[in-house]
Design brief:
about 325 residues; alpha+beta; 9-stranded mixed β-sheet; 5-stranded mixed β-sheet; 9 helices; 18 strands; about 35% strand
Length: about 325
């Protein structure tokens, strides 16, 4: 008989793990793996990366999940490679080939690339790909696609803040375009690659996609799952950044203990502050993040608050590592 498996003992963990998501894992798979490694009770990610994409994926734990929407809304920067001359059913290398076309590199002059680059910079409209998690009538588009069904999708407005296209050689016979793009939320890089291929008259599909920045968080600050797994368990928590690391663009307001207690109870506070749409509010004794709010007409209005228990756990720092038995593999 097999010995009964010991369940992982979860614990309150608060902070942000800047993960460099590996190839082949979905964002949720990566989240669950990191959650297991940290034995965290509550976690969420800040925007989906395709399994074929790698790169920056901030993961929020505990109190930090209250601010995850900020990263969902943030501009993101990607490096991508689009192979020219071949279109696929999915817009990437996973799909079946739909069409092949000869590509003449001599026709892909710097001037032509610059013209296409300008065409796709600024506000553009995209038709979401069928192989995406976007829902139609409560069902993800990829579910329809897997069943061989194509449904009508409305074009959506997105913004390409910056775009740089350069010619790259995939191998002796194939030509590719390297793209570096900074874009608004909701942008599909696979669709951008397909549309650029169409504009060049030869079609294209993505063979490489890496998110290198989201909301000012660069990939150089990230840790991999392999690195996290190789650490002693006690060291993994040191990889977490404080929840306020997501609030770098917020105006900072510090309240004395009396006003902090009232604000934490959801009561507006009056002061001589200028109006601000995004404010990170801290108490001064002890110094601790209380939540976020906004200032209008001299009033500081609470929007999202931490609970007193969350604040206490953050102030206490690293949770006590209790005996947890054997960790189960995912």
């Amino acid at each position: 008989m097999h010995a009964p498996r010991t369940r992982v003992q979860r614990r309150p963990v608060h902070g942000v793990l800047l993960l460099d998501k590996p190839l082949g894992l979905s964002s949720n798979d990566a989240l669950q793996k990191a959650k297991w490694l940290l034995r965290a009770e509550k976690a969420g990610h800040t925007g989906t990366l395709d399994p074929l994409a790698t790169g920056v994926l901030p993961l929020c734990f505990g109190a930090a999940t209250k601010f995850s929407q900020l990263q969902l809304d943030a501009a993101k920067t990607y490096e991508a490679v689009a192979l020219l001359g071949t279109t696929t059913t999915t817009g990437d290398a996973e799909g079946d080939v739909v069409q092949r076309c000869d590509v003449d590199p001599a026709q892909l002059t710097p001037e032509r690339l610059e013209a296409v680059q300008k065409k796709f910079t600024g506000p553009i409209r995209q038709v979401p790909p069928m192989h995406s998690a976007l829902k139609k009538d409560g069902k993800a588009l990829y579910e329809y696609a897997r069943a061989g069904v194509t449904v009508e999708r409305e074009a959506r407005d997105v913004v390409i803040h910056t775009l740089k296209l350069t010619l790259a050689q995939a191998d002796e016979a194939q030509v590719a375009i390297k793209m570096i793009v900074t874009c608004s939320k909701g942008t599909y890089i696979r669709t951008l690659g397909e549309d650029i291929g169409a504009a060049l008259g030869c079609g294209a599909h993505l063979t490489f996609l890496r998110r290198i920045d989201t909301g000012g968080i660069g990939v150089e600050r990230c840790v991999t799952l392999a690195q996290l797994e190789a650490m002693p368990e006690a060291e993994r928590l040191a990889c977490l950044e404080a929840p306020e690391s997501l609030l770098a663009q917020h105006v900072r307001v510090t309240l004395d203990s009396d006003n902090a207690a009232r604000f934490l109870s959801g009561v507006r506070r009056r002061g001589s502050w200028p109006d601000a749409s995004a404010v990170a509010v801290f108490g001064d004794t002890p110094p601790a993040l209380l939540g976020v709010g906004h200032i209008a007409g001299g009033e500081l209005v609470p929007d999202r608050l931490l609970s007193p228990l969350e604040i206490q756990q953050i102030l206490e720092g690293t949770p006590h590592l209790q005996a947890s038995g054997t960790l189960e593999k995912l």
